[in-house]
Amino acid sequence: MKRITWRKHHKWFGLLFCFFMLMFCWSGIVLNHREAVADINVSRKWLPAGYRFEAWNGGLLRGTLRYTDKDSVAHILAYGAAGVWRTDTAASAFADFNEGLSQGADYRSMKGIVQTPDGTLYAAGQFGLYRHDGTAWIEIPLPLDEGERLSDITVRGDTLVVAGRSYLYLSTSSHAGFRKIQVKVPDGYEPKVTLFRTVWMLHSGELFGTAGKLVVDAVAVVLVLLCLTGLAYWLLPKDMRRRHRHGRHTEGEARWTRLSLLWHDKLGRTTIILTLLVAVTGWCLRPPVMIPLALTKTPALPGTSLDSPNPWHDKLRMVRYDDMCGDWLLSTSEGFYSLASPDAVPVKVEEAPPVSVMGLNVWQKDKQGNWLAGSFSGLFVWDRQQGWVTDYFTGEEAEDTAGPPFGKFAVSGYSADFKGKECVVEYYEGTDALAQPGELSTQPMSLWNFALEVHSGRVFIGSVATYVFVFLVGGGCVWCLWTGYRVRKGNK
Questions:
Q1: Which of 97, 172, 385, 457 has a 20 to 30 A CA-CA distance from 324?
Q2: Does the keyword Phosphoprotein apply (predicted)?
Q3: Secondary structure of the chain in the HEC alphabet?
Q4: Can you give the pTM of this predicted structure?
């Protein structure tokens, strides 16, 4: 193309996508520092109506626990994205059961609650383990590595097992302390990761630890400055012409125009490799480009965060004990595994239900003793002894593969603890089997989750953004950067 065409492309693509580039930048910085902003909430009252909880959707109800308190009174605890709420078996009223937890919505996102034989309640939030002392929740220290998040909790007799994303944490009898367990290497293990995960961590900088994230943060700041200086270079000449028509001085505007172009040019040329790298890797993280990346596995890059001696680094999701088969079960990003004990070598379970790449949300026994396994790929009934898996809704045999990240029924929760009610909760539609109290509809969203909605574009155009926003807008931003480089290169 001619230089004037490159210039026009750079100008109009820049003006068109400038706002979204700014949104990408600030939200990306927030996403890179989740724990630092975990106490900051965003009111759902100020968000589009689709972000309000309705009919227990959006992960508000992940599961329930029927328990008996010290006065032998039966209660049900409902838990999920907004913490813990206590009710009765008729769901006649819901009371806040979050005393002792941080006000930050991120801290109140509960992955599971159990009651030990001595009557003590334990809850696993993504950032910590809590014990209820009868009045409030008290955090229990765990030997967590930096960045480790909890994903599940289960109990078998006096054995309490908490699952992190990379390790298991086991405690027995008095539960005074927890032993950290690195799950053993399974037979046939190959130290490979998906290319999608490598690109994802490269995009955030996490691939190179804290230093890498800070470098990407700096790139985001550079992109903000490129947007602002580009806008200034476009707007200031217009203001100069207006002032000139009214006989006013324009020396100040002229100076700022020159400075804007100077910094826009220098910043753009000196950081073009980094800015393009961040933009292109971000563009690759949504369909259709992400699909081949997710299907391709490569060895972990040496010296990076993915190059871990732990074969289960960031791969563990949920843990259960199967009384009928007499073994422990692990749900991981690599599939299901059976273990004779938490310290045993895991064995791959071949006949297993499909699970979305986002992991299980539901995993419990039904009345017949079969496993119910629910994720965004659907809800499935799993009879391990017979070796068959059927679709909960249709009764048909389940497909061998999980398919797309979202199936026809994106299951986010389940409960069979209420009288005469079996509640299957769909992420978008919720459930009509259980009335949701009105006060729960505007429970706050964490700043981190809000930044994720901005970064993905869902806050602008809804769920369809998952498939088109980043691909189109991200592609426009990449083209803007490239045309800017071509314009300046042509001047040399």
A1: 172
A2: no
A3: CCHHHHHHHHHHHHHHHHHHHHHHHHHHHHHCCCHHHCCCEECHHHCCHHHCCCCCCCCCCCEEEEEECCCCCEEEEEEECCEEEEECCCCCCCEECCCCCCCCCCCCCEEEEEECCCCCEEEEECCEEEEECCCCEEEECCCCCCCCCEEEEEEECCEEEEEECCCEEEECCCCCCCEEECCCCCCCCCCEEEHHHHHHHHHHCHHHHHHHHHHHHHHHHHHHHHHHHHHHHHHHHHHHHHHHHCCCCCHHHHHHHHHHHHHHHHHHHHCHHHHHHHHHHHHCCCCCCHHHHHHCEEECCCCCCCCCCCCCCCCEEEEEEECCCCEEEEEECCEEEEECCCCCCCEECCCCCCCCCCCCCEEEECCCCCEEEEECCEEEEEECCCCEEEECCCCCECCCCCCCCCCCCCEEEEEEEECCEEEEEECCCECCCCCCCHHHCCCCEEHHHHHHHHHHCHHHHHHHHHHHHHHHHHHHHHHHHHHHHHHHHHCC
A4: 0.92
